[in-house]
């Protein structure tokens, strides 16, 4: 078997097998590994391989009424997680990996550390979630105090901070915002601690809430984040409208979405013109 046979097989997968682009790439990687590390032979140039096309699909977006129906079947910390994903636009793991110091209740901001692409970013804390989150943090702090009284209360530290700051793992600002209900026990050292809530628990709860709400859409945790962005809703509602994706043309969710001040607000007021008199165009 050489390059022509591999080319023919990959083309067969795309043309006759109608496989996805990821399946074809996986087959190519497996054949390259077989030839290089098992057979000990380089394939060389494969020629013009017919590539399977990666489809461009629109995300599933929920309306406000559908989001309210899903939220009605969630409670406790799971509801808080779902509200942050929808209201603040957080990914599931970004929400679960939040630490107490990342939530600024005074400035109504959330700091996402090591997000997609290992980038930090700031997002707004929805006003409707603030009181529930404050009460939740009170319960978490009481649990942390009990863990400290029992001789534990340490969390996993990122990177090498555990060696650099040995006592920081037990400090309140480093604790998870959404810790597990039960402490885990290290079988070798006997140490006990709490990790953040497992992602599968939130995913199962959201899927069950979608089923109970009677929605026909295939909605998941990430669907809540997609539904947060006004650009996604605008493109689906008005595919030919250029203004649908502009930040100042968004439709704010009065219950969960935090409001942004439009870019033209300061310029309008500085020129003695009220916001109700009209909007400035992009050129000012």
Order of helices and strands: HHHHHEEEHHEEHHHH
Content-based structural category: mainly alpha
Unreliable runs, pLDDT <50, ≥5 residues?
231-254, 258-266, 272-284
Order of strands, main sheet, comes to 1-2-3
Biggest beta sheet attributes: 3 strands, antiparallel
> What is the beta-strand fraction?
under 5%
Number of domains in the coordinates?
2
What is the CATH C-level name of the largest domain?
Mainly Alpha
Number of helices: 11
Query: From the alpha-carbon coordinates, what is the Rg to the nearest angstrom?
Result: 25 Å
Strand segment count: 5
Mean pLDDT, nearest integer? 81
Gross geometry: extended
Which helices and strands appear, and what pairs or packs with what?
Layout: H1 3-15, H2 21-39, H3 64-71, H4 76-87, H5 92-96, E1 103-104, E2 109-112, E3 121-124, H6 127-149, H7 161-164, E4 184-185, E5 192-193, H8 199-213, H9 221-228, H10 230-237, H11 265-270
Antiparallel strand pairs: 1-2, 2-3, 4-5
Helix pairs in contact: 1-2, 3-8, 4-6, 4-9
Q: What do these coordinates show?
A:
This protein is mostly helical. The chain has 2 domains: 1-56, Tyrosine recombinase, N-terminal domain (DNA polymerase, domain 1, Orthogonal Bundle); 58-261, Orthogonal Bundle (hpI Integrase, Chain A), CATH 1.10.443. It contains 11 helices and 5 strands. It has helices at 3-15, 21-39, 64-71, 76-87, 92-96, 127-149, 161-164, 199-213, 221-228, 230-237, 265-270, and strands spanning 103-104, 109-112, 121-124, 184-185, 192-193. Strands 1-2-3 form a 3-stranded antiparallel beta sheet, with no helix packed on it. A two-stranded antiparallel sheet has the order 4-5. It is extended and about 70 Å long. The N and C termini lie far apart (66 Å).
């Amino acid at each position: 078997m050489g390059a022509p046979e591999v080319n023919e097989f990959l083309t067969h997968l795309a043309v006759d097998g109608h496989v996805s682009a990821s399946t074809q790439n996986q087959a190519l990687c497996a054949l390259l590994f077989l030839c290089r590390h098992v057979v000990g032979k380089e394939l060389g140039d494969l020629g013009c391989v017919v590539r399977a096309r990666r489809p461009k699909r629109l995300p599933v977006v929920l309306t406000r009424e559908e989001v309210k129906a899903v939220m009605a079947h969630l409670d406790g910390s799971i509801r808080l997680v779902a509200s942050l994903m929808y209201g603040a636009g957080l990914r599931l793991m970004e929400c679960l990996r939040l630490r107490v110091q990342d939530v600024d209740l005074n400035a109504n901001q959330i700091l996402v550390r090591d997000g997609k692409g290992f980038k930090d970013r700031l997002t707004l804390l929805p006003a409707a979630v603030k009181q529930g989150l404050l009460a939740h943090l009170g319960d978490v702090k009481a649990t942390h105090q009990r863990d400290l009284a029992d001789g534990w209360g340490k969390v996993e530290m990122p990177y090498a901070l555990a060696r650099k700051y040995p006592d920081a793992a037990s400090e309140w600002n480093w604790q998870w915002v959404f810790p597990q209900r039960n402490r885990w026990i290290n079988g070798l050292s006997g140490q006990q601690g709490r990790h953040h809530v497992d992602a599968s628990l939130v995913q199962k709860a959201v899927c069950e809430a979608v089923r109970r709400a009677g929605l026909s859409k295939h909605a998941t945790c990430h669907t809540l984040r997609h539904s947060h962005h006004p650009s996604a809703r605008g493109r689906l509602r008005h595919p030919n409208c250029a203004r649908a994706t502009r930040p100042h043309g968004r439709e704010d969710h009065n219950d969960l979405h935090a409001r942004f001040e439009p870019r033209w607000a300061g310029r309008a007021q500085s020129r003695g013109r009220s916001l109700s008199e009209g909007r400035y165009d992009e050129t000012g």
